[in-house]
Each structure stands twice: as C-alpha cells, then as structure tokens.
Design goal:
The protein is of the alpha+beta class. It has two domains: about 1-185, no CATH class; about 200-280, no CATH class. About 55% of the residues lie in helices and about 15% in strands. The protein is built from eight helices and eight strands. The strands form two sheets. Strands 1-2-3-4 form a four-stranded antiparallel sheet. It has a four-stranded mixed sheet with strand order 5-7-8-6, covered by helices on one side. Helix 1 runs antiparallel to helix 4, helix 2 (about 35-55) packs antiparallel against helix 3 (about 60-80) and helix 6 (about 130-155) packs antiparallel against helix 7. It is elongated, with a radius of gyration of 22 Å.
C-alpha cells in the first residue's frame, strides 16, 4: 500500500505539466521573451525538485512536495486571470486540486516520515495545534510563496528597483517559512521495541522514551482526564498514555532553560490515531483504554 501511494504521487507530478502547463504558458505570454524564458526555467526547476522528492520519501521531501503544490496552486490562480480558455483553466484547477489532496493526505505524511525509521520502528506524524492548522500554517505558505515568486516576477516586468528590494526581503522570508513548515513535519511519535518515543520539539525539550515496561495503557483520552497535555491544542482525537510509575520529562520552553517535571500520564495527537493504536496493539502496548 505504501509503495502504491508513493507511485500514485509520482504519477501525479509526472503528468502535472500536462495539466497546468498550458495555463501557466498563457499567463507568461504577455512578458518579454527573455524574462518569460527565465521564469519558465525556474518553474521547470521547481517542478523537477517536487518530482524528484516523490522518489525519496523523507520529511524534507514532504516539505518540498507540499510547498511545491501550494506554489503551483497560487500560480494557477494567478494565471486564471489571463486570456486562457475556460477548459484550460478547469483542467489546471483539477490537477492542482488532486495534487493538494494527495500531498496533504495523512497516510502520505506518515509514509514519508516513517522512511527515517530504523529496524523495528514505526513513526507517526503528530497533528498541529488549531491555531497553526487554521491560520499560521496557511499564512506561512502564502508568505513563503510570495517571497519566492514576487521578486522575480517584478524583475521580469522590468521593475528592477522594486523587484530587487522584494527579492532581498522575500527570499529570506521564504527560507525561514520553509524552515518552520519543515519543523512541523518533524513532529512524530515513534513505536520502538523498547516502548514509545515522543519526538516533539514544541512539547518536550528533547525526544523522550517511555519504556514498554513503564506503560500501563494507551488509548483514547477520556473527557475528564487529568493527563498532561502535549497535543498543543490540536483538534481531533487525542490519545492518552498512562505510566505505571511517575516519569521525569523536560517540557519545551521559550527560553533555553527548562525545568524537569514528573508526570504519570500524558496526551498526544497523532495524525492517524487509528493506525497508531492498531500498531500499538500489535506490540502489546495498549492495555485497557482509559475511556
């Protein structure tokens, strides 16, 4: 199934130029020949990076693919204001919609991060907070895309001074935006032979192992739970881990200094809680659900 998903994602990007190329060509046509050629090369390079990333499933590749899909979506919306026919616009919109759905799929995300697993490990992405999902992540994507394409486009339009200024400001914004987006793709929970590792820089100062012998149960969190919340306020089902004895952890802090706290239960929010629990059952980690 994982190979089928990766193959399908690769196919989408292989045929992607056939769907969006005509519309983007219409959008670039009003430009002079040299700027149009330069921007066309840039678009082909971006497409090549995204396609290449589908063949090397890693967290960084996931970031590149998702950013590339959002960039393509923005460009298609921009080119839709050109003189292209409605059929060309519809086809391009369908292609970017399919690419967006495929790249943002939760299973695809888990497949990409799980490729870093060693031996008998299984990694699962963690959901982001409601604020990140609803506002900060979309805003970061838009700022990053604008920082990447606005400067070169203004230079192509021969607005050299403004274009140069936008490039100087925009390229660093794109870099830091991509870095932030990539960090969100590096938040996961890992099932290992020794137990469970929570790898979340927003919740813990360092990855923390909860040994199998210390885990009493894992299951859906109850409404009145008193467990320490490491979900970052994410929407959806939260899972609860209860330990047989108190466990020392170092919560993440804004400052570099952090204080150790002792907990006996905590909440976390994998993107696919059902798949996580299924894997945990196979490893005899679930015990009895706290719900």
């Amino acid at each position: 199934m994982n190979r089928l998903l990766l193959f399908g994602l690769s196919v989408i990007w292989i045929v992607f130029p056939l769907g969006v190329g005509p519309l983007l060509a219409d959008g670039l046509n009003p430009l002079e020949e040299i700027p149009r050629s330069v921007l066309s090369v840039v678009l082909w390079v971006l497409w090549g990076l995204a396609l290449f990333s589908t063949f090397i499933p890693r967290p960084l590749s996931l970031t590149v693919i998702r950013f590339g899909t959002v960039t393509a979506s923005v460009l298609v919306l921009w080119a839709s204001t050109s003189s292209a026919t409605s059929s060309v616009i519809v086809v391009a919109l369908i292609f970017v919609a399919v690419a967006l759905l495929a790249s943002s799929n939760a299973t695809v995300g888990d497949v990409f991060v799980d490729q870093l697993s060693y031996g008998d490990e299984k990694r699962f992405l963690l959901r982001s907070s409601a604020a990140v999902t609803g506002f900060l992540r979309p805003a970061t994507y838009l700022v990053s895309v604008a920082g990447l394409i606005c400067g070169p486009y203004l230079l192509a339009e021969e607005s050299f001074v403004v274009g140069a200024i936008i490039c100087v400001v925009g390229f660093p914004l794109t870099f830091f935006g991509l870095r932030s987006l990539h960090q969100l793709n590096r938040r996961w929970v890992v099932l290992v032979p020794a137990g469970l590792v929570l790898h979340d820089h927003l919740a813990l100062n360092e990855p923390t192992l909860f040994q199998k012998s210390e885990i009493d149960l894992i299951g859906p969190a109850s409404i009145d739970t008193d467990a320490t919340d490491f979900t970052q306020g994410a929407y959806g089902l939260a899972l609860e881990v209860r330990c047989e004895s108190p466990h020392d952890v170092w919560p993440a802090a804004v400052k570099k200094e952090t204080e150790m706290v002792t907990i006996d239960a905590f909440l976390f929010a994998p993107v696919r809680p059902d798949s996580f629990l299924s894997e945990a059952v196979g490893r005899s980690l679930t015990g009895h659900s706290p719900a």
